Amino acid sequence: MLKTSITAFALLAMVSGCADVPQATEPAPASAPLKITSWNVEHLAERNGEGCRPRTDADYADLRRHADALAADVIALQEVESKAAAERVFDPARYDVVMSARPKGRRGGVCYGKPGQTIGHQAVGFAIRKGIRWTRNDDLSALALGNPDLRWGVDVTIGSRQPVRLLAVHLKSGCNSGRSQSDPDCPVLFDQLPVLERWIDGRAAAGETFLVLGDWNRRIAARGDVFYAEIDDNEPAGADLSIASEGQAAGCKARYREFIDHIVLGSKALTRMLPGSFEEYRYDQPEDRHPSDHCPVSIRIKP
């Protein structure tokens, strides 16, 4: 699909709810809606051949192609080894990259199902298009629960006239539904819940416009999800949350029809989201050649 302007691309996304790979476009002008994206880049390493998803120069070039086609203004990143790794995909001449300050963990070990490959550091961060005003707030280190192998949240504010607070997260994996006490992952995820809720409640109490986005490792849009119900309580006022996908089915992988990557908006942020602008980016490659095991998800908000 050819896109002749940012406006046309935005209108098409609002109608379709998903996006195939478009041609790369120029950044949006200051008055245009901002495209806010979350992308788990799957074990993105600094150097070729390392980590649980060892890559070649051609693989990094393919990721850059998709990053250009995505044409996002702000991208929350997950599973990125370092700033240097992110800058192999997001050109530092075009993007400011900020990564969590979490020290590299001691986890190491062999990648699951991949003998001889060693897991690398997984950090959360942002790539922010140059020209967008932003400030960094303290990382939400409490999400790690004192465990050096759990990820921190990264907290930035974009814009100045009508600022938006963004928290990028990558929550504990392995508890995508329910609350089984026999599953060792569920108690950890639910210990992260009050940390996340305190951040949300703090933003709502301060009257801020905020989003929480990233890899939640949880099907929070499922009917009656107990994790989401606990944070979506509208206490204090303004903490009434909305999930941007609005019940749409995921299409990145044939086996999985429910999202675990989410953009969650507070009530003030929802008023600035362009209706129908949620989209799941689709790679123009067979699933076994996808450059990551997650597809980016995006919305557009009024600046």
Description:
- The chain has six helices and 15 strands.
- The protein has a seven-stranded mixed sheet. A six-stranded mixed sheet has the order 8-9-10-11-13-12. The chain has a two-stranded antiparallel sheet with strand order 5-6.
- The model is unreliable at 1-18 and 20-26 (pLDDT under 50).
- Helices cover 20% and strands 25% of the residues.
- The chain has helices spanning 6-16, 57-70, 83-87, 185-205, 226-231, 267-270; strands at residues 18-19, 34-44, 74-80, 95-99, 110-111, 114-118, 123-129, 134-136, 154-158, 164-170, 210-215, 242-243, 261-265, 279-281, 297-301.
- The chain has 303 residues and is of the alpha+beta class.
The proportion of residues forming helix, as a percent range, comes to 10-25%
Total helical segments = 6
What is the overall pLDDT average? Answer: 90
Spatial order of strands in the largest sheet? 1-14-15-2-3-7-4
How do the helices and strands follow one another from N- to C-terminus? HEEHEHEEEEEEEHEHEEHEE
Termini separation: 26 Å
For the sheet with most strands, the description reads: 7 strands, mixed
Count of beta strands: 15
Radius of gyration: 18 Å
Net shape: globular
pLDDT below 50 for ≥5 consecutive residues: which ranges? 1-18, 20-26
| Strand proportion | 15-25%
